[in-house]
Each structure stands twice: as C-alpha cells, then as structure tokens.
Amino acid sequence: MRKLAFLLAVLTLVLLVAVPSFAASGEYYSGYWAVTSNAFIAVDGKVLTLERNPVVIDGRILVPARTTFQVLGVTTDWYPSYGVIEMSKGSKSITMSIGNKVAYTERSIKYMEAPPVLVNGTVMVPIRFVAETFGENVGWDAKNEVAYIGNKPAEVPSRSGLKPNRTYKVVIDAGHGGSQSGAVYGGVKEKDLNLDIAKRLNALLKAEGIKTYMTRENDATVSLYARSALANNVGADLLVSVHNNAGNSKTSGSMTLYHPDSSKKKGNLTAYEFAQIVQKNLNKTLKSKDMGVIQRPNLAVLRTSNMPAVIAEIGYMTNSSELAKLKTDSYKQQAAEALRNAVLESLEKMYK
Ligand code: ZN
User: Fold this and answer.
1) If you measure from the C-alpha of residue 23 to the centroid of ligand 1, how many angstroms do you get, rounded to a whole number?
2) pLDDT band at 213 (very low <50, low <70, confident <90, very high)
3) By C-alpha distance, which of 312, 314, 313, 310 is closest to 259?
4) Pairing with 131, which of 30, 71, 203, 286 sits 20 to 30 Å away (CA)?
5) pLDDT computed for residue 2 by the predictor
6) What amino acid positions are annotated as catalytic residues?
7) How far is the CA of 243 from the centre of ligand 1 (A)?
C-alpha cells in the first residue's frame, strides 16, 4: 500500500508540475539547461521577495532553497565541498545533491524530475518536490504566473515589462510647497497631499528599479522652472507632476493635463499618449470620475519640459466626499499605485 501511494504521488507530480514555457533566455547550470522564470513564488498567501528569479528545468520550477522554505520553518544546510543539501523540519528531512535527481528522505529514496542546481552561488531546489515532501501543497496560478505553497495569494505585485539593462529616469514633482500651499480645504493643504502621494510613488518606482528624482522631498518652495529644468538636465524619460484639484463642491474625479506640442515625444510615446495612460490608470484604480485629458499649452512645468510630462490632478479637494478619501492612507497609496502602473505602461510603450 505504501508503494502504491508512493507511485501515485510520483504520478501526480509528473502530471501536475507542467508549467508554461516563459519567453526568456536559458543557460546551463550544474549540467542542466535552466530557463530564468518571471514566476512569483508565494507561501501562505504572501508573495516572497527572493534573492534571484526561479528557474525552470524540464518544466519544473526551482526556487532558492533557504529563502523559500525558511518561511515554513524548514532548515537548509548546504555543504558546498560535497555539493550536498540537507533540508529538515521536525522529524522530516531530505538530502539531495547538486545535479543529481536522486533524493533521500528518512524513509526512502526518491526520484526527482529535476535536480537541485547551483545558480551563481544560490542552491535552487524543485519547489513541488520539496514542499510535498514536507507535507505542503503546491498550486499554480497560471493567470498571474504564481507558484504558491499553501494558500493562493489574493494579490500579486505588478510585473513590469521593462528591459533589465536600460536605466529609466522619472522625475516626480510634488506640486506647490513652502510658501505656495496650493488649494486649502477642510484643513488640508494641497502641497502636503501632493508630497505624500509623490513620496509613495517614489518608493513604488524605486522598487521597480527605476531611477527617480524628486523636485522636492519636503515642504520647500521650488520655482516652476526649476522643476522642468531638473527633468531636462537629467534627461528624464517622463515627468509626473502630482496635484489635486479645486472647483465647485459638486465636482469630483481625476483629470490629467498635458502640453499639445508634438515635439515633447520620447521614443514611441507622445505627451498626449502619456496623459491618456495616466488618466486611464487613475480612473481604473481609484474608480474616480473621468474628468478628461486636457491640453494646457500655458502651464510652465509642461511647456518648458522637453519630454512627455503630465500634471495628474488626483481628485477634487472641494468635494467633501472626495477630500475625505484623499485624507486616507489607502486612497493616497492607490493613487500612487495608479501612477506607478501608468509610468510602467508608458515606459514600455516608449521603448518598444
Ligand atoms: Zn495644484
């Protein structure tokens, strides 16, 4: 009976581990052809930050042994001079060696479809084989490309199509500041709201590997010309100016402003296209009313910058329910995420 269960387990492994092929380059590691994968790895509903991407060998996903499995309380011992990996938790253990498909557990000898390999110093092990040996289930979310142990994650991080070897530069401009408060309603100053969202956007873009520049990082007075000059001087790909709007108390929604001059184009992206992408993302993420993409030839920041630039008016401070939302951390974070998504989409189009 044990044998049958074992055979069934092996059969299940073979049937379930098939993974779609990723359009990525491969390389030989420890004698096996391994393709780098963009799949996310999650444990108990949380996507892990790993020191390197998973690799796929013969359709099996391999992950960094220690950082993936320590979340489950598995200890990994690595003996580099023997090429031997020992993973253990409680009474269960697996002993494997680099480039070898035979694994030893405390009870039996098992055959793996893909062997552990060494990728630039990191021990990579087949996720499903190891997880199941420790009694965990592994699932595959094909839509989001997530291999998960335990619960499926409800949310996955953005996955940008930016080219890894290119340096992308984005200037983030928090509107107003210092002696210029911008709109002031309900005890909220626009300059503070803009800076808060701009800082969140800065953190999100940095996490995507984008080189960012902020026109101000605190409550400083900065001239309009200094803002565009920074963007021109660093050769920015994009300039995003964060503002909030004022109007009558009934008006609400997001609006994006741009300069109509077609020379403000970089790569395949015009200022108008950038504005459209920003507006679309604000409306989609914030579920805000679409107040349009508007030409503004006379605004200094837009007129004097020579790359695609926008002023993103996130919401109306004069509308009490929109202002109430704008005051919350979650709405400011969503606004920053919308702008992050817009920047990623725009950079992809720019360099396509
Ligand atoms: Zn403003």
Assistant:
1) 43
2) very high
3) 310
4) 30
5) 55
6) 313
7) 4
Question: Do 207 and 66 sit in the same domain of this protein?
Answer: no
Per DSSP, which regions of 106-168 are E strands? Answer: 109-111, 117-119, 122-126, 138-141, 146-149
Residues near ion ligand 1 (CB < 5 Å) are 175, 182, 243
Distance CA 241, CA 298 (A): 15
- How many CB atoms within 10 Å of residue 9? 13
Judge if 179 and 140 occupy the same domain: no
- Give me ligand 1 centre to Cα 303, in Å: 16
For 58-86, write each residue's pLDDT tens digit.
Answer: 999 999 999 999 999 999 999 999 999 99
CATH assignment at residue 332: 3.40.630.40
- Split into its structural domains, the chain has a count of 2
Element (H or E) spanning 281, and its range? helix 271-286
Which of 173, 201, 62 has the alpha carbon at shortest distance from 127? Answer: 62
pLDDT for position 257: 98
**Whole-structure pTM value:** 0.61
Measured between alpha carbons, how far is 110 from 92 in angstroms, rounded to an integer? 14
Compare 197 and 50 and report the one with higher pLDDT.
197
